[in-house]
Design goal:
The structure is a single chain. By secondary structure, the protein is of the alpha/beta class. It has twelve helices and 14 strands. The chain folds into three domains: 146 residues, 3-Layer(aba) Sandwich (Rossmann fold); 179 residues, Alpha-Beta Complex (Argininosuccinate synthetase, chain A, domain 2); 35 residues, no CATH class. Helix 1 links the parallel strand 1 and strand 2.
């Protein structure tokens, strides 16, 4: 352990990472550099600075960075271009944040001359895989220290006892009852643990933080218009906005109307099933709108091929392979498909639901002259359909005669 001289720790200032910070100092006898990322988790990140200082970290070794724009622009938006959902429900809010954190961990390690990085992910979860696959992809020889796979502090009670013994300041102690394990960023907030570990037990009403219950949402529906450029939302109701501002605005609007709650049992990459609850109001709205604008701007076969690729792309992200060759290959194809995904989508938000009211685009492939049920003035010759049907039925007719 003494072979490590300096380590960069992904540091939140909470119980786990504060204990890890002290544990690294004691067990590895090394310098610790802390990195705290503001990804829009909705709480102040600056207190992490004072907490790190209390634990002996120097000012120059404390990195606190606002990464909200980079997070949405370079990670959430590219993912949304593929209409990405894992196992039919999960919008990948936690998964998509990990590649950016891994990227900055190894970049900071290079800047400060550290020979290792460290994280607070447990040995049962997906995040350890995501952090470390990303780190190794970007810095192949980096050393990773994962305390949860090394120590015996495997419960909240043991962590609290360790903190008390070493006078580590911890806020919001909740006695012997474990709180929910939560992760938040601009895309979502997740809840795991406590009574959610029983998939039959309903989540408590007061657990949810970003959204009102649909039945308590306003009785008046809200209509909004989202504008797309090359597959990305660039304006709301005609007002241009940066990617992070778009998502923050949609979170606020969607939360007020009870949109984006989900209760899922998912298959973790490490092999177990896990029950989690998620609030993704902005992402839910974005997904509905993106599919709507694609419906008029994408060629049929391109759209269908994208739908076939999406589950694989979702698994790549969920399992931690954002920096892999296959993700880069898939992203190139997805981004190429978005060149003409431009235009406006009009939506109605009402008591937990998102409905499409209309969509328009200068690049639309929808032709009213052909699609109309009225006289199309020769734009489409209906008799051509007879030959089309007979050609497509040929193999089935041959088989039918043989088996008659």
């Amino acid at each position: 352990m003494s072979s490590v001289n300096k380590v960069v720790l992904a540091y939140s200032g909470g119980l786990d990472t504060s204990v890890i910070l002290r544990w690294l100092q004691e067990e590895y006898e090394c310098e610790v550099v802390t990195f705290t990322a503001d990804l829009g988790q909705g709480e102040e990140v600056e207190p992490a600075r004072s907490k790190a200082k209390l634990l002996g970290i120097k000012d120059q070794d404390i990195f606190i960075e606002d990464l909200r724009e980079e997070f949405v622009r370079d990670f959430v938006y590219p993912m949304m271009r593929c209409n990405t959902i894992y196992e039919g429900e999960y919008l990948l809010g936690t998964s998509i944040a990990r590649p950016l954190i891994a990227k900055r961990l190894v970049e900071i390690a290079a800047e400060v001359g550290a020979d290792a990085i460290s994280h607070g992910a447990t040995g049962k979860g997906n995040d350890q895989v995501r952090f470390e696959l990303g780190a190794y992809a970007l810095s192949p020889d980096v050393k990773v220290i994962a305390p949860w796979r090394e120590w015996d502090l495997n419960s909240r009670e043991k962590l609290l006892a360790y903190a008390a013994d070493r006078q580590i300041p911890i806020e919001a102690k909740r006695g012997t009852k474990s709180p929910y394990s939560m992760d938040a960023n601009l895309l979502h907030i997740s809840y795991e643990g406590d009574q959610l570990e029983d998939p039959w037990v309903e989540a408590e009403d007061d657990m949810w933080r970003w959204t009102v219950a649909p039945e308590q949402a306003p009785d008046q529906a809200l209509e909004i218009t989202l504008s797309f450029t090359a597959g990305d939302i660039t304006a709301i109701d005609g007002k241009p906005m940066s990617p992070a501002t778009v998502l923050a605005t949609l979170n606020e609007i969607g939360g007020k109307h009870g949109i984006g709650r989900d209760d899922i049992v998912e298959n973790r990459y490490v092999g177990m099933k896990s029950r989690g609850c998620y609030e993704t109001p902005g992402g839910t709205i974005m997904l509905k709108a993106h599919r709507a604008i694609e419906s008029i701007t994408l060629d049929r076969e391109v759209a269908h091929l994208k739908d076939e690729l999406m589950p694989r792309y979702a698994s790549v992200i969920y399992n931690g392979y954002w920096w892999s060759p296959e993700r880069h290959m898939l992203q190139a194809a997805i981004d190429h498909s978005q060149a003409y995904v431009n235009g406006d989508v009009r939506l109605k938000l009402y008591k937990g639901s998102v409905s499409v009211l209309g969509r328009q685009s200068n690049d639309s492939l929808f032709d009213e002259k052909i699609a109309t049920f009225e006289d199309d003035e020769g734009a489409y010759h209906q008799r051509d359909a007879e030959g089309f049907i007979k050609l497509n039925a040929l193999r089935m007719r041959i088989a039918g005669r043989k088996r008659a």
